[in-house]
Amino acid sequence: MAHPSSHRRPRKSRALLIAVAVGAVALIASVIVAFRPGGGSGGGSGEAVSVADGGGSATAGSRAVTGTPSAGPSPSPSATPTASASASPSKKATPKATAAKRPKTTSAPKSPVSGGSLAGRIKPGVTYTGIATFYDAGNGDGACTFGPTSDVMTAAMNHTDYETAKACGAYVRVSAADGASITVRVTNECPECEPGHIDLSAPAFAKLAAPVKGQIPITWSLLSPADAPAALSIRYKTGSSRYWCGIQVLGHRNPVARLEVRAGSGWTVLPRAEFNYFLSEGGAGCGAAIRITDIYGEQLTVEGIAVRPDAVQKTGVQFARH
Predict the structure, then answer these.
(1) Gyration radius of the chain over CA positions
(2) What are phi and psi of 94, to 5 degrees?
(3) What pTM did the predictor assign?
């Protein structure tokens, strides 16, 4: 019995040796797997995705950081135009203010291209019926803000036909029933007057009827007079600058239908105020070339007019007679 028993031990030792060898191999294999790139359950593909995500976030972070500086400089560009804008006027304004040259002017062909189609309510070739009254014109200034004048042959147009200053500067022939007639220039507005009604200066009314009559029936029509000023003038409103301006046309033979200023590579139409200035609220075209169109479609372009508030600056052009 001793023999079989001594025979079993080697089997047990061999089994133990095999078990130890298998364990050692498994341990080595696990160590190798653990140290492989991207290996292991904790550092596997999940960790790689996490790093990739982190890299993406970092990149977005760097974009955000890059964006922040570029957003930071954005005040700098807007500040730069402001600085250059304030410097720019002084560069341009100085030569224009000191220039002794007459404004350069050009005009379109004198042919009546529109036949008065740009007119408002007061149209050429139409006879209007109404009444005439009179008022004390004082120094001759009025709603058209042309300023004081020694010309006593003026009139205030009824509110409807005044039409937001479109009637300003128009020459009108007024005739009484007995055949007497006069030519007056519209310089004012009569807010309470009905359409067709013209409120004349006292001296103008006196040429048609005795003042004691108070009012008389009349007919009237638009004129394009031969004895208009030789050339029209431009005036910038009080407070005008490179950043806001009002522009007025003076001494024009025919009513002004539109005023444009050169802004960039094109022309900008300016709106007309009740007080007869064309306004550039944002400063577009202030001090640039000016293009004036009358109701007949004739266009006059004037260059070299400096922004000099309240100064009457003569041009070398006038609208054609019709």
Answers:
(1) 44
(2) -60, -50
(3) 0.67
